[in-house]
Amino acid sequence: MNPNQQLIEEFYAGFAAHSAKTMASCYHEDIVFEDPVFGILKGRDVADMWEMLVEKSNGNLQIEFSDVEANAESGSAKWIATYNFSKTNRKVVNVIGAQFEFKDGLIIRHTDYFRIWKWTQQALGLSGYLFGWTGFLQDKIHKQAIHSLRIFQEKKHKKKSPKRDLSNF
Fold this sequence. Notes:
By secondary structure, this protein is of the alpha+beta class. The protein contains six helices and six strands, in the order H-H-E-E-H-E-E-E-E-H-H-H.
């Protein structure tokens, strides 16, 4: 197994162990991620997205991966995420194809492909079946995903910033 195959394996093993920190350690600081729900994310937003998804799963997330292939420039894998969608508590089994590009021994580009209409059917039920194929609902899902990420990031940064004691003023 070459180093880039090992890197992909490490990424998904971290995901399966619910370790967003391990996943982030596999990414280059200039990472670009893309998928049908979040669209294009860059840099810290990518690691924050995985951290948010792992946290929201409350341990109810199963990751399986296979067909890991890589050379010096690019790689691919297949993976399946099984979880309950947080908004509806409906079970989702998402079958995903991933493509990777590498730089400096890390993942610089990560693109996930899956059928968004099939995902909406599982996550949203009848409304996903009826409207999941439309640009309107897909745009709404994208905007909600980005909104959730921004709220998560605000809460995360509030936790990290020390509170100032202004009582002496």
